[in-house]
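RESIDUES AND SHAPES:
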Amino acid sequence: MKKTLAIAILIALAVALPCFAQGGSEATSTTEKAYTVAASCDYPPLEYIDDNGKIVGYEMDLIQAIANEVGIKIKIVNVSFDGIIAGIQGKQYDIGASGLTITEDRKATCDFSTPVLQFSLSIVTKKDTEGIFSENDLVGKKVGVQLGTTCQFACEDAGIAVKTYDEAPSAVLDLANGNLDAVVLDSVVANDFVLSNDSYSQVLKVSGSFQNADDMGLAVIKGNTALLEKLNEGIEKLQQSGKMAQLKAKYGLN
């Protein structure tokens, strides 16, 4: 009688254990996903690392505000700019937020949100440099750009030979040290380096610009319409509430 009871208990446990295991799996699967946001944090005021080692900037505040509006979690990772689009295409990252101009070439590999900023390209030179105002003036000059940016592509399309840098600040430093004639940067970044940076404001100037204003957006894995719709929903809410305008004002982008 006792032996029979023991066998019955063992059978009951054997049946129940898979059920418990399955319940644990379901609990894990419902854990909220944290979307990985790839950013090259060397591009003030869009994204950079402050004196406390914290990743900050207009886009960093913006993506967190969007996440709060639509109820998603994000995780920001600091990566090389030229690896962002490839990383999204390879599904290594969910979102790219790093001053990404919306171009036809990029739209072939990623989907883009509603534009979150507009900017043109600026030419930065030393203050004592004369005669460099437009793209035509850059031909034959030593011009620095960040690798993989629309600054590089626009210069090359205009027949301008460039020296590429992994990070924009390295190009600006080389310019300040007299190793370049000019650097081409997104206008919002150029203004930050020249107007807001004590190290460069007395040495450099924005001497000109070229191209019409371009749209900047957040990139996502192509075909991820669910995430794209969430981002666009968040952007719309921030625009309607005035919070986006406040963020732009905070970083001098209005």
Observations:
- The two ends are 84 Å apart (CA to CA).
